[in-house]
């Protein structure tokens, strides 16, 4: 860490409780109070270096030799900063570091310690050292953190923006091109980085050598500063994947719910035990994190986005935040798994999982697919190809069809799962997206088994969702023996199976005749 030693005199200050006393041998003629501390000092060393103190001493002095009592509650950095200021005025040895340079620089500006009050005054020396600090990654992070304590003054002196500029430039540059020593942070190992082998820990310290080398350091910043830094880095054209990974790292650090299993008991206890102020802070944090995630499809994992969506429901974030997450998930729904879609129901619906949320996500996925099909030039994909589809173009929608069929089968055993919602979800998938309807048939069968009281007309309506010609031999055999299905459906499946068998036999005889003629 960078440091600068100023002045050379030995220590002449000592502390007595909440009072700093100068032991120069002369009686004190001024007492300066800031926060809970008092400084018994002398007028001349102070007014010779500070324009503000010179003005205050002249204004409030009652006469030569009289003692003066002043309050400086507005000084940036408070008592700690004024202690260093006092040492500088007396020429006592002091040390500037990345931790205190910001408060000292702001305090020097506040006290008007410019070159008008002595050559090599504190404003000039602090400014020169600040420039040195900004040349180093870790020191720049420390200086930016220190700005939190004196934010109004640091903003006015453009120290915050300079720190962010420095860090943004370095984050978007090869770290080998500048000095980047360890930040000295102590971090807890993640579960992925630790393990046990025969009772011996195999945890190792993670060495960040790729694009993620700066994630850990900036994760200690407050949300306000982190947001400004990410926007500055993004403006320099850094890859969206890198930006997203940093935001994910930050979210996992400050959103406790990110690292908890989403069981109903855990969610309920979390909401119950969370103070209102804490819940409000978490809600604001999550909404900011969602806003920082790059919009590019695929740069943020679907699993993480759904996890954020679950937390957004727990924390009752704004509707626009939840809608944003649902649209992001919908755009890349083909990358989700069945477990991801089992979102606990936070509303007043009776179903165990949130069917309405999954329906909205699926609707957005279909809109994205339709927009992509319309945007495809006619010379590349004809109308028939769009409807029937090639294996490559149908891969995402086929994966989503299988996913939704699995979701329907999972929820079919819920007695509160209403038939209209089942039908709406199943019908959202176009017929061409399902090469085989076995998954949908399984969901329908489970639903009929659980909801055994539904009328025959509703059973007929439910079975119209599947295409009997697209059932495999195994599924067709099961249909033929399924007493829960309407008789018409069983006859239809047997008819198509017989048709398929006749076609196979005819083809076999045709081949045999050709072989005999040869």
UniProtKB/TrEMBL annotation:
<dbReference type="InterPro" id="IPR043454">
    <property type="entry name" value="NPH3/RPT2-like"/>
</dbReference>
<feature type="compositionally biased region" description="Polar residues">
    <location>
        <begin position="173"/>
        <end position="182"/>
    </location>
</feature>
<comment type="pathway">
    <text>Protein modification; protein ubiquitination.</text>
</comment>
<dbReference type="InterPro" id="IPR011333">
    <property type="entry name" value="SKP1/BTB/POZ_sf"/>
</dbReference>
<keyword id="KW-0833">Ubl conjugation pathway</keyword>
<protein>
    <submittedName>
        <fullName>BTB/POZ domain-containing protein At5g03250</fullName>
    </submittedName>
</protein>
<dbReference type="InterPro" id="IPR000210">
    <property type="entry name" value="BTB/POZ_dom"/>
</dbReference>
<feature type="domain" description="BTB">
    <location>
        <begin position="28"/>
        <end position="98"/>
    </location>
</feature>
<dbReference type="Pfam" id="PF00651">
    <property type="entry name" value="BTB"/>
</dbReference>
<dbReference type="Pfam" id="PF03000">
    <property type="entry name" value="NPH3"/>
</dbReference>
<dbReference type="InterPro" id="IPR027356">
    <property type="entry name" value="NPH3_dom"/>
</dbReference>
<feature type="region of interest" description="Disordered">
    <location>
        <begin position="173"/>
        <end position="200"/>
    </location>
</feature>
<comment type="similarity">
    <text>Belongs to the NPH3 family.</text>
</comment>
<feature type="domain" description="NPH3">
    <location>
        <begin position="212"/>
        <end position="500"/>
    </location>
</feature>
<dbReference type="GO" id="GO:0016567">
    <property type="term" value="P:protein ubiquitination"/>
</dbReference>
